[in-house]
């Protein structure tokens, strides 16, 4: 079966997360995006695990679905996408903050389990270590290696994936508090880690510059804090529709079953380049090295970004992919495309209206961006067809993000006349 999975999200119990991220809200927006499987997020939180038990029921092995009667109306008016077709996979993120080799480490790890009983056993162990109530993503003084050991003991079919592996402050390879290898982080249990989450600020091509990462599959997820952000990054599978087939496909890392990842253009990630947001300073790695990591405006330290840190560990000049490696599709979220064409903010009413019209015509966001034929798109809207053509071929304009500031990816050059390309799905 062909399906799309976004395996890293957060519930309303995580800080800075929308109250709209209910299970029904997530399912509704997943259907609009064209996502078939969504990570539940935050199964470590007592209130959220109760919601998962009350509102979901078993479906395919390791997958859950909304109970009958729990399915809310679609996320968009006049759009037929059905939330009932969406599945959930039990997931959580744990922030491990601990001291190792004289240095404070701050590593975020994703946990996946096939059933509620496994989740509850893991939760019982973690609750004895620290506070799992104050945040959906608990902060624990727990070594990453020991977290993995707990998962293996309490959920033998569980999977641990280091999250957004290059983020400066909270990741396995982060410039501020990370390690230089998976083996250094997880020690004698490192062989149980077979996948890494690239994060919004890096993509597979960047990671394949590092030979020590060759054995790992690379997955991509949205890490969304509101349901509208689902699918910023995601994974495409051509395998059995169940928990065990999904993770076996990731483990095998073959395009035959793990077909592709959907990526941000990495420059859009908010930690791609080096910089200091307060002074609006954004630098390439060679520029920040020349500045000795100091902001040239205020003299304080720069936040060293993903590109810089990754190049420190790189031992290749060109990426090397394995045979039949998953394909990579770099995309711009549809609301951003619509906002650029209309020349308004992404949260404007005009964008919402045109977005609804496009989804009603093509069925889902990913159906438009990945699958629809260009002549069909251009017949609906020539300017939208031109935008999708440029995105699919990578002909975009990139302004990198830095120090917590998202980058900007544009399809059209400043002042480029769009009027001759026609209206965007009507007037």
UniProtKB/TrEMBL annotation:
GO MF entries: helicase activity
Nucleotide-binding found in the keyword field: yes
Record-linked InterPro entries: Pol/histidinol_Pase-like
CDD domains per UniProt: PfuEndoQ-like (cd19067)
Entry annotated with the keyword Transcription: no
Domain of life, per lineage: Bacteria
Keyword set, alphabetical order: ATP-binding, Helicase, Hydrolase, Nucleotide-binding
Protein's name according to its UniProt entry: DNA helicase UvrD
Species: Geoanaerobacter pelophilus
């Amino acid at each position: 079966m062909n399906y799309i999975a976004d395996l890293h999200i957060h519930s309303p119990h995580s800080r800075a997360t929308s109250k709209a991220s209910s299970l029904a809200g997530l399912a509704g927006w997943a259907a609009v995006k064209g996502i078939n499987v969504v990570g539940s997020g935050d199964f470590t939180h007592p209130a959220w695990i109760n919601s998962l038990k009350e509102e979901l029921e078993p479906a395919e092995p390791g997958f859950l679905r909304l109970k009958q009667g729990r399915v809310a109306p679609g996320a968009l008016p006049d759009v037929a996408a059905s939330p009932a077709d969406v599945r959930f996979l039990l997931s959580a993120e744990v922030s491990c903050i601990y001291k190792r080799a004289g240095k404070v480490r701050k590593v975020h790890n994703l946990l996946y389990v096939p059933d509620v009983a496994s989740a509850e056993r893991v939760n019982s162990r973690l609750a004895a270590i620290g506070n799992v109530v104050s945040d959906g993503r608990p902060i624990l003084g727990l070594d990453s290696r020991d977290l993995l050991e707990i998962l293996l003991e309490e959920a033998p079919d569980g999977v641990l994936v280091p999250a957004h592996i290059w983020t400066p402050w909270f990741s396995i390879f982060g410039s501020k508090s990370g390690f230089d290898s998976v083996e250094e982080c997880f020690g004698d249990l490192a062989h149980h880690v077979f996948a890494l989450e690239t994060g919004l600020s890096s993509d597979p091509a960047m990671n394949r510059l590092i030979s020590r990462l060759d054995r790992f599959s690379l997955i991509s997820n949205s890490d969304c804090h509101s349901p509208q952000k689902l699918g910023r990054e995601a994974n495409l599978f051509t395998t059995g529709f169940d928990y065990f087939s999904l993770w076996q496909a990731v483990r095998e890392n073959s395009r035959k079953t793990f077909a592709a990842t959907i990526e941000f253009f990495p420059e859009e990630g908010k930690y791609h380049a080096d910089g200091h947001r307060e002074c609006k300073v954004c630098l390439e790695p060679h520029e920040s090295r020349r500045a000795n990591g100091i902001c040239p405006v205020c003299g304080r330290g720069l936040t060293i970004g993903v590109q810089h840190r990754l190049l420190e560990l790189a031992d290749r000049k060109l990426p090397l992919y394995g045979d039949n490696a998953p394909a990579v599709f770099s995309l711009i979220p549809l609301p951003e495309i619509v906002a650029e064409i209309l020349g308004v903010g992404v949260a404007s009413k005009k964008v919402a209206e045109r977005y609804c019209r496009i989804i009603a015509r093509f069925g889902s966001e990913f159906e438009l961006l990945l699958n629809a034929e260009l002549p069909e798109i251009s017949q609906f809207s020539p300017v939208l067809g031109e935008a999708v053509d440029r995105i699919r071929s990578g002909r975009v304009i990139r302004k990198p993000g830095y120090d917590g500031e998202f980058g900007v990816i544009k399809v059209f050059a400043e002042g480029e006349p769009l009027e001759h390309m026609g209206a965007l799905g009507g007037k």
